[in-house]
Please model this.
Amino acid sequence: MPLNAAARGLELLFGLSFLLQTLEHLRMDRAMAPGGLWPWHLQRRDVPNRYVRALLDQIFAPQVLHAQLLLRVVAVVVLVVQGSSLALVLFLFISQVLMLLRWRGAFNGGSDFMTLIVLTGMLIAQCMAQAGDPELGWRAGLWYISLQTVTSYFMSGWVKLLQPQWRNGEALVVFLNGAIYGPLPARHLLSRPLLARAAAWAFIVWECSFPLVFVGPLTALFFCATAVVFHFLVFWFFGLNRFFWAWLATFPAILGCASQGLL
Amino acid sequence: MDGMAQWLFLAYFVLMLATLVWKTPVISGPWLFLLRAFFPNWKFFHAVGYAPRLYARTVAHVPGAQRVWGSWTLIYPRRTRHWWHLFHNPDTNLGLAQQNLVHHLGTDINALPDGGDPGSLVTYGMVCNLVAHSMQAQFPGCSHFQFELRMELEATQHTVDAQTMLTSPVLPCP
Model:
């Protein structure tokens, strides 16, 4: 995949992912309101500096927050239609950091982290473009995103491999039973210990071997295609729809970098 | 790419592996916690162990009578799956965020010094608010509620062990 196609693919998929996240935040207005489940007045003591706290009081006032989210929708549409610019990416980056602060550092864990990584990669690309070398900028940005994405699978796989309960399949069943759409029905295939063990090992081996994605474009295509299935299953069982889109947005970067060759 | 890039690539992943087995002191602080998205560790669903679970009970308002408590109810997000949740899933994500909050309360209580007051924790106040909302929705006529944070160890079929970490005072329903 040529570099410019990878960059454009990233902008489009990231735009979709960020738009879906923003629309969900807009639907949570009631939860974030003063009488809601997640009111700022209870959470603000988390912020250790009183000047920053006073500033955030203004930024997280319900109407200001709502306006910021609406502006985010507009910015994402511009990103999808026109492509990125330094001002646009900087706004999205700051907006994302503010939303993270509003949710005590993370709303949805890993998907927030991956969203920030893509924005950081795009910011690297735009800063270097301003310095006069847009191609080098995108190359650096896409490599940053690819390496972080591959690291996410690699670390997630190896940390499981080190746990005996993952190796014997028990952990998979325990986590599925505790999932938001769970527990597993008694007659579910994964309730059989042998199948649970086989599934756990399939995930572990696949995640641990993810750095092989850089062997070449075909290998990258295989890993990205299986990752789509993997993230769909994670959504199906755990309800983590944001993970699906956040990781999908990084695949053009992986495909672009794998096409440049490394291994 | 030249051979140097390949060696750097290999060294990077070896270093990543080393961080899994090489234990280093944990650096913590309020700003690091709030900005932890800049330092992702990517350890998803990594270990089965004691997990915090929130239980609550209410008492119905009966004028002139003694308090009669209802049974303890688990407050845990369960949702019905729909295919379109792939595109729009705010309620489920809010439920997941609430469960994360319960985990953070467990961590914060563990980090308290001996004799520390859990009531001073931000997470305690937020969990009180969460339980109050939940009790109001489930038991509209309740006058008071109380909650417990229990650490439960799950096996594939059932709960193996449970220990109460915190019992709140009796609180008025909103």
Observations:
- Residues 90-111 of chain B form the longest helix (22 residues).
- The mean pLDDT of chain B is 89.
- Chain B has one domain: 50-172.
